[in-house]
Amino acid sequence: MEFAALFALTLLIGMLIILVAVAVGKQKGEISEQLEQNEEDSVAERNAVKAPTAKKQKQQQRPRKEKAQQHTFSHPLLASSLKSHSGNVTSLDFSSNGKYLATCADDRTVRIWSTKEFLDRDHKCLRANLELDHATLVRFSPDSRAFITWLANGDTIRIFKMTKKDDGSFTFRAASEDFPKKHKANVINIGIAETGKFIMSASTDTNILIWDLKGEVLASIITNQMTNSYAAISPCGRFVASCGFTPDVKVWEVCFGKGGDFKEVSRAFDLKGHSAGVHSFAFSNDSRRMATVSKDGTWRLWDTDVEYKKQQDPYLLKSVPCQSSEGSRVALSPDARVVAISNGCSVAMYSTSTGQLEEEFHGVHSEEITELRFDINSRYLVCSGDRAVRVFHNAPGYRAAIQDMQAMLKNAQNEGMKQRLQQQIQEAQSTLDTVLTAPKN
Q1: Which residues are 190's β-sheet partners?
Q2: What's the average model confidence in pLDDT over 95-111?
Q3: Which of 243, 296, 325, 344 could covalently link to 278 via disulfide, CB atoms 3.0 to 4.6 Å apart?
Q4: Are 242 and 225 within 8 A, CB to CB?
Q5: What's the predicted TM-score (pTM) here?
Q6: Over the stretch 48-77, which tens digit does the pLDDT of each residue have?
Q7: Are 375 and 117 contacting, i.e. CB atoms less than 8 angstroms apart?
Q8: Is residue 115 pLDDT above 60, yes or no?
């Protein structure tokens, strides 16, 4: 009896345990299914968030920067375009022997070009690198065996010596030390006197410094022109001139003793007559003529071959209306026959004898012209503004030379002189005809 009761109790307890186990298992299954469902929902939500985010990121990606297109320009008088620089050309200068053109750009290079290759199809150049900086100005030394640069970041002058190799090319070596920093404002021009006795640097704050070749300051000139817009050394190496906010150009003589020692800087003369500030000026090769361009809308030609020590003032030879703007540059051909004026991206060429507009070149560069110069032989006019340097035939110069020789021929008394002039006229006319009929660049 007792055994039967015990058996029944054990059986009851076993059934209860089985029921509890079944119930717990069922609950675990439901929980597992719920967890799996929650996980799937979570993944779906994350994917839903990721999709628009990825799309948004794709949309926000910056477009690939395309390489800037080279500005195109053509003209019957365009002799060539020098295009090796990868940055905008900031300055250029011809060597005094007429063989080379130096250019500098914000691509951290100075390049030397051969002028005899201007008319070639391909234009080779030699490159000097500027470490961790770039030049804003470049000027040749009088012996054409060195050049100086103004460093944009260093705010100083650096000299480079040129050593000619057996193959005719050059190696470039920077001086061991740069000039000390002295200017407190932006430097607008530098130069080396043709005499080799001094270097000039000028800044916008009316300050001009005269240096010796070793980097010692010889003198400081305060121009009192409110601001300087341009300054330069005369080709003869005697004078330094500046222009700016005031309507005049001031000229000083840099004086040295017989032994070559620096003496002083003394005021020589002024160019007076403009009614507004002067943008720029230029000398003829013999320093006997100067050209100026002003905010008053005129360019002027001056006779500066005067006895300034006897208080004789320069003579105004011509005043001609022209288009100009802030930053305009003027170039006077070495023989003083042609004046060129830059206005933004364009250039105009005038005859100095008649004042007539001879040629106009519109849209020469994609940016404002930074430099405008004639070569030493008055054959070419070159300018910079973007990555290219434009080289133009000086057709107005050839025409003016022919007219001058024809006038001389009429007055010639000597038969030998007449024959020489006739030959020179024929040669000049032949050169001009070749220029005008040459294949267009």
Answers
A1: 201
A2: 96
A3: 243
A4: yes
A5: 0.82
A6: 444 444 444 544 555 554 555 678 899 999
A7: no
A8: yes
The CA–CA distances, whole Å, from 425 to 274, 409, 437 equal: 37, 9, 18
Among the residue ranges 1-10, 180-189, 363-372, the one predicted with the least confidence is 1-10
**65 neighbors 432 (Cβ within 8 angstroms):** no
> Which two structure tokens, joined as six digits, stand for 60?
């926000």
Residue 70: the pLDDT is 73
CA distance 147 to 102: 8
Nearest to residue 164, comparing CAs of 173, 154, 155? 173
Higher pLDDT, 67 or 340: 340
Task: Check if the beta carbon of residue 212 is closer than 8 Å to that of residue 218.
Answer: yes
SS (H, E, C) the chain: CHHHHHHHHHHHHHHHHHHHHHHHHHHHHHHHHHHHHHHHHHHHHHHHHHHHHHHHHHHHCCCCCCCCCCCCCCCCCEEEEECCCCCCEEEEEECCCCCEEEEEECCCEEEEEEHHHCCCCCCCEEEEECCCCCEEEEEECCCCCEEEEEECCCCCEEEEEEEECCCCCEEEEECCCCCCCCCCCCEEEEEECCCCCCEEEEECCCEEEEECCCCCEEEEEECCCCCEEEEEECCCCCEEEEEECCCEEEEEEEEECCCCCEEEEEEEEEEECCCCCEEEEEECCCCCEEEEEECCCEEEEEECCCCHHHCCCCEEEEEEECCCCCCCCEEECCCCCEEEEEECCEEEEEECCCCCEEEEECCCCCCCCCEEEECCCCCEEEEECCCCEEEEECHHHHHHHHHHHHHHHHHCCCHHHHHHHHHHHHHHHHHHHHHHHCCCC
pLDDT tier at 170 (50, 70, 90 boundaries)?
A: confident
Please enumerate in sequence order all residues whose Cβ is within 8 A of that of 273, keeping only pairs 6 or more positions apart, or say none: 247, 300, 316, 319
> Which tokens is 96 given?
């005094």
